[in-house]
Amino acid sequence: MKILAVDSSAKACSAAVVEDNKVLGSFFINTALTHSQTLVPMIDAVLKNTSTDINSVDIFAVSSGPGSFTGVRIGVAAIKGIAMPLEKPCASVSTLEAMPYNLLSEDCVAACVMDARCNQVYNALFEVENGTIKRFCDDRALSIDELLSELKAIDKKIILVGDGAELCYNSYKEVLDNICIAPENIRYQNAVGVAFAAFNKEIVSSAELMPTYLRLPQAQRELKKRMESKK
């Protein structure tokens, strides 16, 4: 089975082609350039450089959230736009669920974290052992302090992974002696992890593929506050 996967859920952006658990090719940038300008050329490049005919792709996968509202929408829209005319199935992958695949060689608890601003993170916890991944909790948005309280109860090695890893590590390193941060080269969410996670996902049509948000966009949150203050 051949999967084309993309991730544009945060500042980093990537595209990959994976066939039967073999990475045929991947492109990754972390320059905070506009994803609307970089993602489609990146998809085109990875297809050309792996000699992959778009029609030979079995599943189109995307990190559908959580993450940047704009970034997530760009990734989902790109995959929908490619898959729909080809009438190909899609896979919606949690951005957080893709991250533990960076740590398959480890025996640890993967604390997947994305910076959600306002001293909060998007988070999910996974056990990584013998090359397999087990989810501990649903994706959620919580404060850095709330996550610390949970991590204190874990006596296994904890590895922080994701664009919120450095933020959390700086807050936790003096408190938890079993915590470390993933190396820079495997720290961030990427399309290869999205593809691996997609192998275990239920497929949907391109019309059914939608972004997944854990909280309302900032503009809607501010509007809600203003409306509540007028009551």
Output the keywords.
231 residues; alpha/beta; six-stranded mixed β-sheet; five-stranded mixed β-sheet
User: What portion of residues belong to β-strands?
Assistant: 25-35%
Instruction: Supply Rg.
Output: 18 Å
Mean pLDDT: 93
- What is the makeup of the main sheet? 6 strands, mixed
For the terminal residues, how far apart are their CA atoms?
55 Å
Helix content: 25-40%
Output the structural class.
alpha/beta
Our count of helices gives 7
Global geometry: globular
- Unreliable stretches: 218-224
Order of helices and strands: EEEHEHEHEEEEHEHEHH
Number of E-type strands:
11
Polypeptide structure, described:
- This protein has helices at 35-49, 69-86, 95-98, 144-151, 165-172, 191-198, 218-229; strands spanning 2-7, 13-19, 22-29, 59-63, 90-93, 108-115, 120-129, 132-135, 140-143, 158-161, 179-181.
- The chain has seven helices and eleven strands.
- Helix 1 (35-49) crosses helix 2 (69-86).
- It is 32% helix and 27% strand.
- By secondary structure, the chain is α/β, with parallel strands linked by helices.
- The strands form two sheets. Strands 6, 7, 8, 9, 10 and 11 form a six-stranded mixed sheet that branches. Strands 3-2-1-4-5 form a five-stranded mixed sheet, with helices on both faces.
How are the elements arranged and paired?
Blueprint: E1 2-7, E2 13-19, E3 22-29, H1 35-49, E4 59-63, H2 69-86, E5 90-93, H3 95-98, E6 108-115, E7 120-129, E8 132-135, E9 140-143, H4 144-151, E10 158-161, H5 165-172, E11 179-181, H6 191-198, H7 218-229
Parallel strand pairs: 1-4, 4-5, 6-10, 10-11
Antiparallel strand pairs: 1-2, 2-3, 6-7, 7-8, 7-9
Helix pairs in contact: 1-2
